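re: ur question from earlier - yeah i can do the single chain one, its not a big deal. heres the input i used so u can compare w yours
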Amino acid sequence: MYHDRKKLGALGEELAVQYLLKKGYKIIQRNYRCPLGELDIIAKEGKELIFVEVRTKSTLSFGSGLESITYAKRRKLVQLGQYFLSQNFQHHVHYRFDVISIFIPRSNESPEMIPEVVHIRNAL
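and the output i got, formated as tokens:
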């Protein structure tokens, strides 16, 4: 089960990257790791830096990907973004936090398996 969740998450992140690239974003880094944790995607839209959290689900039994982001997770994402900025920029940078929720139905639920992508800008 863990392996399947990891594969689903990796697929979701790849779909999110492709989605952002099609929208004209520039991908700066994927899976940024630091002592505080991990950011899924760091991108740029124009001059603005965007920290993107990707949530991928194959069933909506326990809510959508967006609904799975708790207050503690939001707080952690802000800390991770601030850490990245402190390590990489010496001056003020415009930034925001987005969430991309991806729903990939299990094959028995939908034979065509078309992923649903929802992009929430300024989610935090």
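The chain has a mean pLDDT of 87. not sure if urs matches, ping me
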